[in-house]
Amino acid sequence: MAQLIDGRKISNEILEEITNEVQKIQSAGGKVPHLAAVLVGDDGASLTYVNAKVRACEKVGFKSTRIHLPASTGEEVLLDKVRELNDDPEIDGFIVQVPLPEHIDEQKVVDTIKPEKDVDGFHPANLGRMLLDLPTMIPATPKGILLLLEKSNIDTVGKNCVVMGRSHTVGTPVSVLMSRNKKTANSTVTVTHSRTKDLPVITRQADILIVAIGRPEFVTGDMVKEGAVVIDVGIHRVPAPEKKSGFKLKGDVKFEEVEPKAGFITPVPGGVGPMTIASLLHNTLIASRKR
User: Does residue 267 share a domain with residue 168?
Assistant: First the structure.
């Protein structure tokens, strides 16, 4: 039976460290970090994520601003709001919650955010600096995954790491980070995707399996090596009429099948999700220091 990697517990430890830093800033008469979040439309999951980020800001003593725009907001109106936040000296960092309505070009929005305020770490300048191993904003979810491994004392050096998914938000950045010449990395990394042949053969070779493919319960027990470390990045609302909410949360991994075989595994919810928020706030603290 696998040991659960408790993302809530580890993220709370990181948030406590950030709280201590904020208290030091206040004691020295400095400016408290300020994070803004822009939400366009009324997507239920996005609203939940943004509210969780605002609550986390309150917990550590950050200032936070939530900007909620209607789904009908035009692309240029949103870009103007981004430029306004870029120029606002009170705002240290901000995010634009995705997904955005179809009529808005997400990449154009990301490109308009100033790299030094891009606490999501998605601007091409930040991704490029990450690739070159230069100081920068690391995308929050990949950063959270590495912190989970580090804080759980999981040995990654020389291990076979298989990353399922090649998105620019998770799969590609985490594959780069896991191959770096650093203590929590130094793995031999394989990236798999929708065109990969003999997928289960590859995943069964993984000492560390990072799953970020956006397909509920795709990874089954027969795809996982005995004793592997399994990091489930996926989160999906699956209908559950018996629950008051009408849904339950599932990951990309079929937990009931994989957990008995794995050595370590992240639950959904309570695994990677809280770490993403903690990493976002850590990026905001870094942005505040630089400014």
Answer: yes
On whether residue 3 sits in a domain, the answer given is no
97 is catalytic: yes
Over the stretch 9-35, which tens digit does the pLDDT of each residue have?
999 999 999 999 999 999 999 999 999
**Containing domain of residue 195, as a range?**
140-274
> Which residue among the candidates 81, 92, 97, 143 is catalytic per the annotation?
97
Q: For residues 4 and 43, give the distance between their C-alpha atoms in angstroms, rounded to a whole number.
A: 30
Mean pLDDT of 127-132: 97
pLDDT of 241 reads 85
> Of these residues, 92, 118, 120, 207, which one is catalytic?
120
- With beta carbons less than 8 A apart as the criterion, state whether 255 and 268 touch: yes
Query: How confident is the model over 36-52, as pLDDT tens digits?
Result: 999 999 988 888 889 99
- Same-domain pairing of 145 and 267: yes
Active site residue 26: no
Which has the closest alpha carbon to 11: 274, 201, 193, 200?
Answer: 274
* Residue 287 located in a structural domain: no
Q: Any idea what the CATH number is for the domain that residue 233 is in?
A: 3.40.50.720
Residue 152 sits in the same domain as residue 35: no
Give the number of domains in the chain.
2
Q: Please give the span between the terminal C-alpha atoms of the chain, in angstroms, as a whole number.
A: 47
53 catalytic per annotation = yes
Q: Could you give the CA distance from residue 197 to residue 290 in angstroms, rounded to a whole number?
A: 45
pLDDT cut 70: percent of the chain above it: 100
Q: How many residues does the chain have?
A: 291
